Amino acid sequence: MTAPIVAVIGGGQLARMMTGPATELGVTLRVLVESPDAAAAASAHQIVVGMPGDADAVAAVLDGADVVTWEHEHIPAAVFEAAAQRGIPAFPSAEALAFAQDKIVMRERMDALGAPNPAWAPVHTHDDLDAFLAAHGGVAVLKTARGGYDGKGVRVVRSAVEADDWIAAAAEGGPRLLVEQKVAFTRELSAQVARTPQGNVVAYPVVESTQRDGICAEVIAPAPGLDPLLAAAAQGLAITIAMELDVVGMLAVELFEVDGSVVVNELAMRPHNSGHWSMDGAVTGQFEQHLRAVLDLPLGDVTPTAPWTVMANVLGGSREHLASALGEVPDSGAKIHLYGKDVRPGRKVGHVTVAGDDLEHTLSRAREAADIVRDGAPRRATATGGEA
Amino acid sequence: MTAPIVAVIGGGQLARMMTGPATELGVTLRVLVESPDAAAAASAHQIVVGMPGDADAVAAVLDGADVVTWEHEHIPAAVFEAAAQRGIPAFPSAEALAFAQDKIVMRERMDALGAPNPAWAPVHTHDDLDAFLAAHGGVAVLKTARGGYDGKGVRVVRSAVEADDWIAAAAEGGPRLLVEQKVAFTRELSAQVARTPQGNVVAYPVVESTQRDGICAEVIAPAPGLDPLLAAAAQGLAITIAMELDVVGMLAVELFEVDGSVVVNELAMRPHNSGHWSMDGAVTGQFEQHLRAVLDLPLGDVTPTAPWTVMANVLGGSREHLASALGEVPDSGAKIHLYGKDVRPGRKVGHVTVAGDDLEHTLSRAREAADIVRDGAPRRATATGGEA
Question: Does A200 touch chain B (CB under 8 A)?
Fold first, then answer.
């Protein structure tokens, strides 16, 4: 066996962050990037420029690869067929990925597994939606079954007329719709596991994630004050889902904590924003772990290396070029990760991680570092009472 | 400022291991590699193939770079001139690097600084060498002033006739020679610091390194049982040397511990094998730190993330392709780093790192992992008394 080649479909920051661990493992990372400016284009060992729907580009990224994996869920069936024709394992498989691609398929499967779903229903008509609203307190969350991310494809509704456009689009062949109970959750949790084709599994500590405007803003590992039994239950649920859905690679089960229990929010079958903390806060980061899993290697140690690790996303910001941020972040133990993307309002352009013994201090250091990366060093007060 | 470009002369594993941190910092790493098969060729963001003596290749790697640095000491003066012509900072500078390139120049400077040297003398003739041997117990270490590494250019001698070839070569314009007292050391230590152009300095914990056949085999961080005062003295010595020699980037001061004190063995002005532990065992690894230093960024936190970190080199071995090792190393928390090099006897082809709370356990896990990467999983005894 010469250096194994892992093909990755999708050239965003998730593929980018696979590159460093691939290099250290002696693995060649070959990435199908959407454009030469994609986040992973500069870092990947080999690139093919093209879309996942471009058969020639897919052939070029697959030929000679040992395995193919994905950094997002939008993988056409033709890609799986092309991999199968070449005898190249594709992880997670089409069958598994279906549950991350389509929220109706996922909810049905969770129900069948006995996994804790919120109340939900498919929506075909205004009547479907109004009936659900009437039964669930007059407010609910309408979602497109496919294509949503980072708050897109999700809408809080109080009346079916608010969904005219989506219902009309669905009737004309657009994305199917489902409605979910608006869960009065205490907080959001994420349970991540990795699983190999042989079925070996490891579970990371359950983390707390905070969203702003539908986008992950902050993650605390482990989730502070989480009942150990509930943490074990969340890990067990994620392991069960990985096994039952035959997921290979990283799986993130996003959860709502509510009334001392959890309900499933979403599934992601890839490295996930809620796991970025592990790059700096666990023996084996999620990007190395994903590569290990899809290559059917022994999974790495998931032990945290510090009592607390806080990850703060850098979302948009006022800088033209993030690189200038590097000189401004003081040495506060913050690990900076930039994705090489142009800054646009609200766009995830990087993240910072801080580990420490004291949660409040660790949180404030991470927030400060993310703020500085985003907008520059805060002005220090010079009047009386200010810091020097 | 768009993504800063760091040019690196030399495409071995040290340049390779700079790539991951460069990606995360949003820094473009452009490497002059000796061949398309060089360890760094696959990982670097941009490569130029050529030798440091090739003016066209040097021009290609320098044009548009923000700073240029080195992963080895064999940098021709023309490279510094080419950088100066373009106004590109070169770190460490020619003046600083001279002390790492030439052991006579280094010894003279250490003497001038009052740094602890072993007894030493330049050697021009057989008489020079015999006189030194007579004065120092009849045995000494003869070295070429330039070009030695990993045990090359070093010879233990008991009589000048044993050095006929080197003395003749030196007389004909070959490398100058020096002889050093054979120090009866307890062990070898390494003190690493990083320094920015502005003069900011951080010191890593002093580590113990074990050599086999002149090649670093193992590093323990921090050095077990080291007197805290001696550790502070070693760090202070390394800081002084970095300041006095105006080193920018990583500096490793290799030391002999002898009679409760230290003497200087060698200097390396770049990331060093004795610092590989920090990739996995400190908040900021030496490769990120070197990039931070030469880019004049705030230096990163050097706090260890575990009580003990052990690094074990993978030297040569019996495998044809190291990649097959990945499937055999059990999850023992070992972090594996492969350099993408062909296996040759004794060649450094990778390293493993294990962190832990108990030194003996950590050591044995690191050694076991390095053994497995090198030669495959050890056969388990099946007879009575063996392990199952």
Answer: no
